[in-house]
Amino acid sequence: MKKELLPSLLLTIVCILFFSGVYTLIVWGIVQMAPNKGEGFVVTANGKTYYENIAQKFTADKYFWSRPSAVDYNAAGSGGSNKGPNNTDYLADVQKRIDTFMVHNPGTKKSDIPSDLITASGSGLDPDISVQGALVQVSRIAKVRAIPAETVKNLVEQHIDKPLAGLFGPEKINVLKLNIALDAITTK
């Protein structure tokens, strides 16, 4: 028994020291080399500070809507709904989102609504939507803001983030940056 106890205690002490001290310092050191030292990507607009890498809630018709969030865009509680695709509550939520979208975007066919506008992401904090998700909202925003749809469409095209190295991931649009740019062109 003594033969096994001493190595077990030593291993426990070494692991505690490594994972609470050395490993923590290694991760901290790596983060110091990251952009903005791991503090996130801060954007200031209209006197408010936002993080562009965390989803923001946009529900007004004059803005591009973000992807739905199961955590109501609360960064302190990141997570999905944990409901399966056949769960009746989940299906009711999706149908409610479809109905809401169709009311606010008349003339849009149900089949034209991309899934990212009616289903929440796994984290509930995805700041991006698909290009199609932005384009399907162009006519609503142009009408509400009384600007040409072509102007709004051009703005969308200017804010497309291409895949990493042209290979990894889909094209996407950061909703916060797009809405800030939209405010900038309509307040001139």
Describe how the helices and strands are arranged.
Blueprint: H1 2-32, E1 42-45, E2 48-51, H2 88-104, E3 128-129, H3 131-135, H4 138-145, H5 149-158, E4 160-161, E5 172-174, H6 175-186
Antiparallel strand pairs: 1-2, 3-5, 4-5
Helix pairs in contact: 4-5
**Principal-axis shape:** elongated
Radius of gyration: 22 Å
Q: Give helix and strand order, one letter per element, not per position.
A: HEEHEHHHEEH
Helical stretch tally: 6
Q: In what order do the strands lie side by side in the largest sheet?
A: 3-5-4
Mind describing the biggest β-sheet?
Answer: 3 strands, antiparallel
User: Helical amount among residues, as a percent range?
Assistant: 40-55%
Number of domains: 2
Explain what the structure shows.
The protein is mainly alpha-helical. It has two domains: 12-51, no CATH class; 57-186, no CATH class. 44% of the residues lie in helices and 8% in strands. The chain has a three-stranded antiparallel sheet. A two-stranded antiparallel sheet has the order 1-2. Strand 1 (42-45) and strand 2 (48-51) form a beta hairpin. The chain is elongated, with a radius of gyration of 22 Å.
What would you say about this model in short?
This protein has 188 residues and is mainly alpha-helical.
Characteristics:
2 domains, elongated, 188 residues, mainly alpha, two-stranded antiparallel sheet
